[in-house]
From TrEMBL, chain A:
GO terms for cellular component: ATP-binding cassette (ABC) transporter complex. This is Spermidine/putrescine ABC transporter ATP-binding protein. InterPro entries: AAA+_ATPase, ABC_SmlMolc_Importer, ABC_transporter-like_ATP-bd, ABC_transporter-like_CS, Mo/tungstate-bd_C_term_dom, P-loop_NTPase, PotA_ATP-bd, Transp-assoc_OB_typ2. The keyword Translocase applies. PANTHER family: SPERMIDINE/PUTRESCINE IMPORT ATP-BINDING PROTEIN POTA (PTHR42781), SPERMIDINE_PUTRESCINE IMPORT ATP-BINDING PROTEIN POTA (PTHR42781:SF4). One of its GO terms (molecular function) is ATP hydrolysis activity. SUPFAM superfamilies: MOP-like (SSF50331), P-loop containing nucleoside triphosphate hydrolases (SSF52540). Keywords: ATP-binding, Cell membrane, Membrane, Nucleotide-binding, Translocase, Transport. It comes from Cytobacillus solani. It comes from the Bacteria. The keyword Heme does not apply.
UniProtKB/TrEMBL annotation, chain B:
It is a multi-pass membrane protein. It is found in: Cell membrane. It comes from Cytobacillus solani. It holds the Pfam family BPD_transp_1. The keyword Iron-sulfur does not apply. This is Spermidine/putrescine ABC transporter permease. GO terms for biological process: transmembrane transport. The chain crosses the membrane at residues 7-33, 61-83, 90-114, 134-158, 201-218, 238-258. GO terms for cellular component: plasma membrane. InterPro entries: MetI-like, MetI-like_sf.
């Protein structure tokens, strides 16, 4: 634990009655001033983590530290964190100004100070002049901003955001992603953002925790997680992937789809069965004779930015290709890719083992 | 064509309203202008503003106010606890159930309980306080009235509390509010509509209670309701009875307007 750590979970389990645990023996650290995202499908436990940090629920087992102090028994109203709720949870009987001022009034601040802070917070979220509006007169995006203003006005050390963008339309959502990220940089406080939208997570975060079934599957920077998914779940959940079975003949040499390829992964047992991930955008279409793989085009969809082409090879593996080039359905094409595009995943490897192996073979390769 | 057929479907409703709402009110108004000998007169209205009737009006409002207040004080916590329980609908049903029993039966049951040799006095005897006069007191009148009106107060408050978005309570907590402040600033203001309709449903009938005043309060409490009953059934002064009824109707309309719903948008 370093001075930068603001929140620490130590083997936290949350279980309701005799149901399977929602959160299973989870440990992690959150550093000050970064943008974190908890990413996972619904029911994976991400919102539970948020509610544990906020103090709405207590862990069944384990310890939660905020600023180095155990907060298991500290009620929500005594914690230095504020939440932006999924449904915004704005008070319908108060106007915009009073919603934002709510926390300050409870702290019994002087009215001119409240006024100054509320106006500043509203300026921060571009809602100047909306003070007197009723909540029901505000649009979804504006309500979102009020909710954010209501959280930041209290100057918390951590802001928790529970899928705050899920109710907005696509364009507004993209806009808010930029704004949230920008806001976090300006304020310099820790954001913990919960989402099931992987694109959102990749675009906004310094650090992503991928959760599944109450466990953290992988944590790391967006590029780490995208380029080096630890297992099938992560590879599948983050972006689109071609996942095919393969055999690691030796370090930096892998066999799949009936051929042997050069790759950049190592640290495996000889002839170990593995899974190969190649991202659809890393595959390039060429003439069949020039391709490293020969595939048959099954179907094609125009996605705007690219064509999504679904192909099959002779072994029956399915290959998804994102290409700006058009293919013709029913024809045979060749696919090429760089050795760097191949990512090899070991079966049942934990994050710790994965990191160790990565370090080991990277050191090895430097020595060469 | 379309509006014609719509009007056609309105007919039964209009007949119903005319026969059972408008006509009776007009009749009451009509009778209020006749004295006991059938002469057209404004004397009834003059008489209403004499101390006897004003005192009765005041006492009606006072008791209705007390009944409403105590009903609210009991009903709100019960409703709140109900929304927190697991089988809330079942428990709610159990609370509503007594309201299906005839009012007269319940009143007689309380005469038995509160009587000199009733269960309440036996209990007081056992714990050493001794027999007290319970029946025919203000206490028993208000107690029984509260008991009878309780379900009507609980229902709207329960519904309002049940509809309250729980994340608003979380949000208030999150922003540093203690449980009490959350109640004061969030829960109560957001359920005020339920409280208002509960108060309406209790206050208006409480204003014109007459059976309980005789059976439980032993005619020590004379309200406008009692007066109307006496005028129509005992003194046969229909004109005066109708005049009091006119004032009661005016009072009810005023209360309805004053406590009328101001609908706030709920997210």
């Amino acid at each position: 634990m370093t001075d930068h750590t603001i929140i620490r979970f130590e083997q936290v389990t949350k279980q309701y009655d005799n149901d399977p645990p929602v959160l299973n023996d989870v440990s992690f650290e959150i550093e000050r001033g970064k943008f974190y995202t908890l990413l996972g499908p619904s029911g994976c436990g991400k919102t539970t983590i948020l509610r544990l940090i906020a103090g709405f629920i207590e862990p069944s087992k384990g310890k939660i530290f905020i600023n180095g102090k155990i907060v298991n028994d500290v009620p929500a109203n005594k914690r230095q964190v504020n939440t932006v709720f999924q449904d915004y949870a704005l008070f319908p009987h108060l106007n915009v100004y009073e919603n934002v001022a709510f926390g300050l009034r409870i702290k019994k601040l002087k009215s001119n100070e409240i006024d100054r802070k509320v106006k500043e917070a509203l300026r921060f979220v571009n809602l100047e002049g909306y003070e007197k509006r009723e909540i029901k007169e505000m649009s979804g995006g504006q309500r979102q901003r009020v909710a954010i203003a209501r959280a930041i006005v209290n100057e918390p050390e951590v802001i928790l955001l529970d899928e705050p963008l899920s109710a907005l339309d696509l364009k507004l959502r993209t806009e808010m992603q930029y704004e949230l990220r920008e806001l976090q940089r300006r304020l310099g406080i820790t954001f913990i953002f919960v989402t099931h939208d992987q694109e959102e997570a990749l675009a906004m975060s310094d650090e992503i925790f991928v959760l599944n079934n109450g466990n953290i599957e992988q944590s790391g920077t967006p590029t780490d997680i995208y380029d080096e998914p630890i297992n099938r779940f992560v590879a599948d959940f983050i972006g689109e992937s071609n996942i095919v079975p393969g055999v690691m003949l030796k370090d930096f040499s892998v066999q799949f789809a009936g051929k042997t390829f050069e790759c950049v992964d190592g640290g495996f047992d000889p002839n170990e069965a593995v899974e190969i991930v190649i991202r659809p955008e890393d595959l390039e279409i060429t003439m069949p004779e020039n391709g490293r793989l020969r595939v048959h085009v099954d179907s094609q969809l125009f996605r705007g930015v690219h064509y999504e082409i679904s192909c099959n090879d002779q072994d029956g593996n399915e290959w998804l290709v994102h290409s700006t080039k058009k293919a013709i359905v029913g024809e045979e094409i060749g696919l090429t890719f760089d050795p760097e595009a191949i990512h090899v995943m070991r079966h049942g490897e934990t994050e710790e083992e994965f990191d160790k192996r990565l370090e080991a073979y990277e050191e090895g390769s430097y020595e060469k | 064509m379309k509006s014609k057929s719509r009007n056609f479907y309105l007919i039964p409703y209009v007949i119903w309203i005319a026969l059972f709402v408008v006509m009776p009110i007009l009749l009451v108004l009509y009778y209020s202008f006749f004295d006991i000998d059938g002469q057209l007169t404004f004397d009834n209205y003059k008489k209403f503003f004499t101390p006897v009737y004003l005192k009765m009006t005041f006492s009606s409002f006072w008791y209705a106010f007390l009944i409403t207040m105590f009903t609210l004080l009991v009903a709100y916590p019960i409703s709140y606890l109900l929304t927190k329980t697991k089988h809330k609908q079942l428990l709610l049903l159990l609370i509503i159930l007594p309201s299906w029993i005839n009012l007269l039966l319940k009143a007689y049951a309380f005469i038995g309980i509160f009587g000199t040799y009733g269960a309440a006095n036996s209990f007081l005897e056992v714990i050493g306080i001794g027999t007290k006069q319970i029946l025919f007191t203000d206490f028993s009148f208000i107690f029984v009235s509260v008991y009878i009106f309780l379900p009507f107060m609980i229902l709207p408050i329960f519904n309002a509390l049940d509809e309250l978005n729980p994340s608003l309570v979380d949000a208030s907590n999150d922003l540093g509010a203690s449980k009490w402040i959350t109640f004061k600033r969030v829960i109560f203001p957001l359920t005020i509509d339920g409280v208002k309709s509960g108060c309406q449903i209790v206050f208006i009938p409480a204003l014109s209670l007459f059976m309980l005043t005789r059976l439980i309060a032993g005619n020590r409490v004379i309200t406008l309701g009692t007066a109307i009953e006496q005028h129509f059934l005992v003194t046969q002064d229909w004109g005066m009875g109708a005049t009091i009824a006119v004032f009661l109707i005016i009072a009810m309309v005023l209360i309805m307007i004053l406590t009328g719903k101001r609908k706030r948008g709920i997210l």
